[in-house]
Amino acid sequence: MLTEKRVEELEKFATDIRIQTIRQMKTRGFGHMGGAMSICDLLSVLYGEQMKYDADNPEWEERDWLICSKGHAGPAVYAALALKGFFPMDWLDTLNQPGTRLPSHCDHSKTPGIDVTTGSLGQGLSVAAGIAFAKKIEQKENTIFCIIGDGESQEGQNWEAVMFAAQQKLGNLILFVDDNKQQLDNMTSKICNMDSFAEKFRSFHWDVQEVDGHNINELNTAITTARNNDERPHVIVMNTIKGKGCSFAENILKNHHINVSAEQAEDAVNKLKR
Amino acid sequence: MEKTYTVSERKMAGVYSDTITKIMRENKNVVELEADLGGCIMGSKMDEIDQYPGQLVNCGIQEANMVGVACGMSAAGKIPFVHSFAPFISRRANDQIFISGCYSHANVKLVGSDPGIMAAYNGGTHMPFEDVAALRAFPELTIIEPTDEVMLEKLLYQLVDLKGMYYIRCARKAVVRLYDSQEEFEIGKGKELREGTDVTIIASGIMTAESLKAADVLAEKGISARVVDMFTIKPLDKELVLKCAEETGAVVTAENHSMYNGLGSAVCEVLAENLPVPVERIGIEDEFGEVGDMEYLKKRFHLTAEDIVKKAEKAIERKSKK
């Protein structure tokens, strides 16, 4: 259990990640707001508490890895990385500008701290499983974290990777499902209902936990539990809200990719600061 | 000079499995991934899978994940070779090769076996005439087609040390041996196998031996045909193509692949932009494969030495009309 003070610090960090994510999209005038906002609390716990990394040496051999398979949430990850010193804060004004090092979707070759290039949905978990497998063979201590979206889970390749990870007993792999209930076109339940992720993963012999994805303590406890659990791969299903914390996006249908005016951004940031 | 072109006693699958297991024993970072077609190329080595823990891995029938896993393993420092039949690598895992592989600058060697008509009795579903076409526009991907057992073994050793994405279009059956064991190969450089002044036949894979047979027939007719083994399809050895075009004034390409976006297309691109000479192409017209033995399929899809002879004569004729 984290102390009350530590929880407050991590909540503050999550708020800062949200503010810096809105800042990036404001500069360009649009962005993938919904799915970025829903993972900010997780990113706070990962970069603020759980992950082992060296901002001055992003390729450090002993680091933990994060594969954000829902690559369109890149701006939220960039915010966390900049706040932790992987690159200067003013890079955050360059999102999607010509020649930028911060493109819409995560790109390992462009951004320090981005471990794997993603963007074509459904591929990140396989790559994460490959990294986890290689580390396991070498008996290395690294933990491999991966985030997939609920809509993204409709891609069949994920389930190939789920079977592979179980077969190879990848206990060093911790997957988060960002179950924010929406995909680009509509509610996930209306397009291709995923029902219970927990039941699905249990039937594939994964270690399963379910948490409120906006609760710092629940997230942190679940990750600690997963790290110390058996050889099964671990999944933490996060009940989240798409657009969480961004006043003009939260709880609005079709907030996957939206326009962001300067006034809207300013208003949302002011509300977050309160 | 009468020459015979006999098929080797050694299957390419055996050369691949012997070489790759030898490499894995020498270098623990090299891994070989299969999607339940291990027995088709690794043969009995798959029964010894426990001797290569974490190195020889059967992922199950899931090519997309297998390619993704390989890309992840390469990010963590491993050197993965990934095998399936050519259509299941090039078509099924196409976007994984692009995004997780090329775009991510991964280090993975993709081995697609039974290219073109070599799928024989597996027929149209397994007979890729379009694998090179499906991959040729991927930046940073090198495409090679080892011509015989000597080349395959030597290139596999080279590939261990070459970083990047490679597609190896690889026969499993025994093919005609063209090289002596001392021969050396450089990826990106074609091999001039026979000198000639009237026309150049630029070939790859099994069509190289057919081209040499064609050159023998042409010689009897008083035509001097040069033969080039263009085992690297991408990047193409542009210099050699231009040199041959300049020196012989006519070109025939021969490939066990679709006419669209394979070796013939690549050669035409270079010549059209730099030195337009008459070109005739041997390749599969816009159609699907079917079951049959190799002799039947060669005739069915016009991939014989006789077909090459006709195209060479046509190219030379067009040259004289200029």
UniProtKB/TrEMBL annotation, chain A:
Q: Tell me where the signal peptide lies.
A: none
Q: Which CDD domains match?
A: TPP_TK (cd02012)
InterPro entries found in the cross-reference section:
THDP-binding (IPR029061), Transketolase_N (IPR005474)
Where does the record place the Transketolase N-terminal domain?
Answer: 13-266
Which co-factors does it depend on? thiamine diphosphate
Note the Pfam families from the entry.
Answer: Transketolase_N
Keywords attached to this Swiss-Prot or TrEMBL record, sorted alphabetically, are: Thiamine pyrophosphate
Superkingdom of the source? Bacteria
Family the UniProt entry places it in: Belongs to the transketolase family.
Q: What is this protein called?
A: Transketolase
* Originating species: Dorea ammoniilytica
